């Protein structure tokens, strides 16, 4: 039994006229008649009676009509579903993120994806940096999102690492958080070299390697190496840093500071950003939805106050 036979039968049964059914199907009337006769032979029953003036369904034809419509509808739905998946309009994207990405960037991209492709399901996993690097390499996540860039973890095969594509695509302006009584607390902006002799509170590199490395990159860019004290607060947002009296200042961002930080924050001068990198392995992309998410992430407007990084900052890992 062929779909064309069912289509011809449903058209004739609906129109009750071979000529109109043929025009509807853009076929010749003899072709439609032949398809219906072949279907009758295959099911072993007469489906309709024909006279020169009218066509009527037999009881067998009436029974088949409803079932044939269901079959054709299911086939149409299946074709549409396959098309949506192949076009990246449906499917699943497994996104791995490091903790600094969670407050602002990951929700921002999730919202953009929901608007652009509501049938694409985004599954987000929070992973520490070494685990995230391995996950993007072995294919257990489709896309990785982290601050800064991450290095090839120990044991990763070079040929696998070489397939990973990375785009350092956006950044959030860097801020300094100061004590309320700090002499620079009322300034519009603060140069990092003005704080070079004061004690900087830093996060544990073991707990937050991506965040710690991004801060080190910012300090190197500013050409400063202040005395450092590891924060006792294991909270990434460092809400309790003022209680650690030996700490004079910390580095943060607006999205981090918005989560419970009560001390004054000021922009860094000259301006710096904490960069964020999107990484994926094209050869491991399980479906077109991954490509759609990558394209969307790299082209959608960044969160308010963030910056899109220039092309010369983009790279391949």
Automatic annotation (TrEMBL):
PROSITE patterns: HTH_LYSR. Gene3D superfamilies: Periplasmic binding protein-like II, Winged helix-like DNA-binding domain superfamily/Winged helix DNA-binding domain. InterPro entries: LysR_HTH_N, LysR_subst-bd, WH-like_DNA-bd_sf, WH_DNA-bd_sf. Residues 1-58 form the HTH lysR-type domain. Required for the induction the katG gene for catalase. Involved in the response to hydrogen peroxide. Belongs to the LysR transcriptional regulatory family. This is Probable hydrogen peroxide-inducible genes activator. It comes from Mycobacterium sherrisii.
